[in-house]
Amino acid sequence: MKTYFEKDLDHDWVVIDAEGQTVGRLATQIAQVLRGKHKPTFSPHQGGGDFVVVVNAEKVVFTGAKLDQKIYTRYSGYQGGLKKISARDMLAKHPDRVIRRAVWGMLPKHRLGRRLLRRLKVYAGATHPHQAQQPRPLEVG
């Protein structure tokens, strides 16, 4: 008995339109494609997933009162260095970070997770510079 390990990992490119999509539901779909769970050769210790290009990140939707009640925090490590920003302000200033942080919450927190997150490309508008890779559209929702 021999265990089969996929050696030739091919990474396709996928483009996702985030317009009108709920942040959490969109992030779960992105995380599955990044990890490669949609492929029959999925292995949890290998990064066999695809590159994901997300466009129209500024048009994502929060459900309920999350737009005003959800708070994003970051800490510098110094006393008094806790920064807080609401979801409404984060979406207005940095819409790409909203999706990136939601996807990071669904990936493993080690070397493989950080490598997978580098394959995520998020753009606020409808255009992206990855046309040469010929990404295929992925229907979400």
- State the low-pLDDT regions, or none: none
Q: What is the level 1 CATH name of the domain at 13-62 and 95-137?
A: Alpha Beta
Q: How many angstroms does the end-to-end distance come to?
A: 41 Å
Q: What's the shape?
A: globular
Mean pLDDT: 94
**Strand order in the sheet with the most strands:** 5-2-1-6
By CATH's scheme, which homologous superfamily of the domain at 13-62 and 95-137 applies?
A: Ribosomal protein L13
Major sheet details:
4 strands, parallel
What's the topology here?
Layout: E1 13-17, H1 23-35, E2 51-55, H2 66-69, E3 71-75, E4 82-86, H3 87-93, H4 95-104, H5 111-117, E5 120-122, E6 136-137
Parallel strand pairs: 1-2, 1-6, 2-5
Antiparallel strand pairs: 3-4
Question: Notable features of this structure?
Answer:
141 residues, alpha/beta, Ribosomal Protein L13p, Chain: A, 4-stranded parallel β-sheet, 5 helices, globular
Describe this structure in a few short sentences.
29% of the residues lie in helices and 18% in strands. It is an alpha/beta fold.
Commentary on this structure:
A hairpin with a 6-residue loop joins strand 3 (71-75) and strand 4. The protein has 141 residues and is α/β, with parallel strands linked by helices. It starts with 12 loop residues before the first strand and ends with a strand. Helix 1 (23-35) crosses helix 4 (95-104) and helix 3 (87-93) crosses helix 4 (95-104). It has helices spanning 23-35, 66-69, 87-93, 95-104, 111-117; strands spanning 13-17, 51-55, 71-75, 82-86, 120-122, 136-137. The chain has a domain at 13-62 and 95-137: Ribosomal Protein L13p, Chain: A (Alpha-Beta Complex).
